[in-house]
Amino acid sequence: MDTSTLLAFLAIVMAGAFMFGRGRSLAQAKSAGGIRSLNSLPSYYGMMTLLWCGVPSLVILITWLAFDNTIIEHLLIQSLPENIQALDATELGLRLNSIENIAESGRLTGAEPYMVNAVAVLNDLRGTSRLALTGMALVVAVIAGAWGWKRVQPQLKARNEVESAFKTILLACSCLAILTTIGIVLSVLFESIRFFNKVPITDFVFGTEWSPQTAIRVDQIGGSGAFGAIPLFLGTMLISLIAMIIAVPAGLMSAIYLSEYASKTVRSVVKPALEILAGIPTVVYGFFAALTVAPMIRDTGAIIGLDVSSESALAAGLVMGVMIIPFVSSLSDDVINAVPQSLRDGSLGLGSTKSETIRQVVIPAALPGIVSGVLLAASRAIGETMIVVMAAGLAANLTANPLETVTTVTVQIVTLLVGDQEFDSPKTLAAFALGLMLFVVTLMLNFVALYVVKKYREQYD
Fold first, then answer.
1. 385 to 114, 322, 392, 412: CA distances (angstroms)
2. Residue 461 above 70 pLDDT?
3. Domains in the chain, start-ordered, CATH in brackets?
């Protein structure tokens, strides 16, 4: 039984446990003089039985799936011939991948004899694992559910147990999110340290030339490699700056209009139309930038005597700015509408005009939310990849001219990790170093935004 089918069966068993637990509480209440004799509502008794039935079996399922592949791979290696087991880790991994591909496709034609035997062993191990997991999960669900059903008594504080269980589940989910973040940071950090062991950090941070094409093997022809990240960060900031110059004024002004001036009819049409921009795939924006905006900028530049590249930072920045307008507009509109109406009425009552009220009362009161919206838009611009690939190119040029080809950090990360790569080479490890630097820059932006919010925050009763 595959995992999805097993989950469906567990869901049916858990639903049955809920009904049996609730039914038992109702039966006991009937014999004890009514539902008021129960310490908790019948649904809490049913939920308690459901938790007893589902939680242990789900824990077993998650734990089993976490270690299943590792154990099966270890047993599979033990079944291989000794000369295959003696191979180095990289070659052995390639052989195991070939065995798994043959097992998935079922095509044994041309496979070596030991691979045919290994495929049979792998299929047997997987079948045994699925059978054992199915049996154990269902048996534990039934036994634990029966134990929970037996515990149903009128004096049992089922509500307290259920709320404690959900509190523990919510805490576990919160810890999982935190641990996932820590794991991502540590994985990037460790790989970055490996990169900096091969390339000095000063060359990476202060270098002005980016050419990561290095020889992977001793006998392979390749360049010495240059890993100066300044052209990448300059290109990222240039495109992001152009995008923010477009998005922030347009988004903020549209939010002010929609919240303070527009009628309900106009707002009901314009606001959804703006938010549609956020749902358009970035590849569509990339096509639009590459096929329409970039040629238009190039032809316009030729008319006035400017030498404009076919792929330019200006084209990518303009389209990216249009793409992130909804992030600024929607969030700014929400925070402006959240400003108390009494502040507007008080300002107008003192003789201020509507525009003065907006500039001197509404905007300062909504500034923390506006800064948050701008920060979100900036993060979205810095992390964009597809538009830059299609409209700005892949060349790492050290230039501040928006009419020339540039590239960004995210584009280079994708480029470095595409295809079959060895993770011991500086070329591949450079992607993790770029990711770490991007994380540090984003963290600094968050600190700056937090400082601005704290400094200019307005608090009202």
1. 44, 15, 10, 9
2. no
3. 3-156 (no CATH), 226-456 (1.10.3720.10)
What is the C-alpha R_g of the chain? 31
The continuous run of DSSP H or E covering 407 comes out as none
What is the distance between the alpha carbons of residues 117 and 111, in angstroms, rounded to a whole number? 10
Q: What is the pLDDT of residues 312-371, one digit of tens each?
A: 888 888 988 888 888 888 888 888 888 888 888 888 888 888 888 888 888 888 888 888
Q: pLDDT per residue over 132-165, tens digit each?
A: 888 888 889 999 989 888 888 888 888 888 899 8
**Model confidence at 179: pLDDT above 70:** yes
User: Phi-psi category of 34—alpha, beta or left, where left has phi over 0 and alpha has psi -120 to 50?
Assistant: left
CB atoms within 10 A of CB 301: 16
- The predicted pLDDT at position 222 comes to 47
Q: Find, among 282, 340, 291, the residue nearest to 311 by Cα.
A: 291
What is 138-163 written as a DSSP string? HHHHHHHHHHHHHT--TT--HHHHHH
Asked if 387 contacts 320 with a C-beta cutoff of 8 angstroms, the reply is yes
Q: How many CB atoms lie within 10 A of CB 266?
A: 12
Distance (Å, whole) CA 457 – CA 11: 48
Shortest CA distance to 316 belongs to which of 375, 382, 414?
A: 382
Contact between residue 288 and residue 319 where contact means Cβ atoms under 8 Å apart: yes
Mean pLDDT of 51-62: 89
pLDDT at residue 119 is higher than 70: yes
Cα–Cα distance between 56 and 297 in angstroms, integer?
62
- Whether 216 shows a pLDDT value over 70: the answer reads no
Encoded amino acid at 195, one letter: F
Q: What does the DSSP 8-state code read for residue 402? A: T
Nearest by Cα to 273 from 253, 245, 254: 254
Helix or strand run (H / E) with residue 200? none
